[in-house]
């Protein structure tokens, strides 16, 4: 008789134990892939929203760290509810928290990012002269990509504060709404498509919408664990990541 596990009744410690036990039985290739998956999700220097190395890191009062731009965009979508939450642990804040750059985390991340040349499959920094470094963010206003060093003006200068930053991409035009020329940063769950903030208040008014980045991350995680069995199904559906 085949038994199916119900993710609703699976605790986080049990899931983590499953991960360890499963990794013991995987082939070398599968084990390395599983280790990479866990690294992406649990590395304290990775943003829980974009899963990349922290950029302009900030830490909430509940102790979780995010890229400044990632958490600000996430909270922008909660303005209408009037309650803000931590995407990681769901702690709720009645007022939008004021965030300050975590200097210690920033120094650690900056040290890891120094002299990181772009590889054949990486997006190159558009500002670097000579040897191009790996871009970590792209700006949908400037339509340019920047390395860790050259992205700093976007965090430090008021002139760039309202620019929309996304993970480094070589296809920036595809992330702009062709009708309103705004960033496609919202995912309409009713129509299953990415839209801009103007679309949300217009033809998609009243539709259920979430952050496009959050939706993309969920699909990436789901794709990674799709064929690896019941415990991965529980891992995804319990919302740990």
TrEMBL record:
| B box-type domain boundaries | 172-212
According to the entry, every stretch annotated as the RING-type domain falls at 47-90
What is a single Pfam family found in this protein's UniProt entry? zf-B_box
The record's InterPro entries line, in alphabetical order, gives:
E3_ubiq-ligase_TRIM/RNF, Znf_B-box, Znf_RING, Znf_RING/FYVE/PHD, Znf_RING_CS
Keyword Transmembrane attributed: no
Q: What terms describe the molecular function in GO for this protein?
A: zinc ion binding
Output the CDD domains linked to this UniProt entry: Bbox2_TRIM16-like (cd19769)
Keyword tags = Metal-binding, Zinc, Zinc-finger
Spell out the protein name for this chain. FinTRIM family, member 69
Tell me the organism.
Cyprinus carpio
Classification lineage: Eukaryota, Metazoa, Chordata, Craniata, Vertebrata
């Amino acid at each position: 008789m085949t038994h199916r596990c119900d993710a609703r009744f699976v605790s986080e410690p049990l899931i983590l134990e499953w991960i360890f036990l499963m990794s013991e039985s995987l082939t070398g290739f599968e084990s390395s892939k599983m280790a990479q998956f866990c690294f992406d999700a649990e590395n304290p220097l990775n943003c829980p929203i974009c899963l990349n190395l922290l950029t302009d890191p900030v830490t909430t009062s509940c102790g979780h760290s995010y890229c400044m731009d990632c958490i600000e965009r996430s909270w922008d979508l909660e303005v209408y509810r009037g309650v803000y939450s931590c995407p990681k642990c769901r702690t709720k804040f009645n007022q939008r928290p004021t965030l300050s750059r975590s200097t210690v985390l920033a120094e650690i991340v900056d040290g890891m990012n120094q002299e990181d040349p772009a590889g054949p499959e990486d997006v190159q920094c558009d500002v670097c002269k000579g040897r191009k470094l790996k871009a970590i963010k792209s700006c949908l206003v400037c339509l340019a990509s920047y390395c860790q060093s050259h992205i700093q003006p976007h965090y430090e200068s008021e002139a760039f504060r309202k620019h929309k930053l996304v993970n480094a991409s070589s296809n920036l035009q595809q992330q702009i709404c062709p009708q309103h020329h705004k960033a496609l940063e919202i995912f309409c769950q009713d129509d299953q498509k990415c839209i801009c903030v103007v679309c949300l208040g217009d033809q998609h008014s009243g539709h259920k919408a979430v952050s496009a980045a959050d939706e993309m991350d969920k699909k990436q995680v789901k794709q990674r664990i799709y064929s690896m069995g019941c415990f991965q199904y529980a891992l995804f559906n319990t919302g740990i990541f």
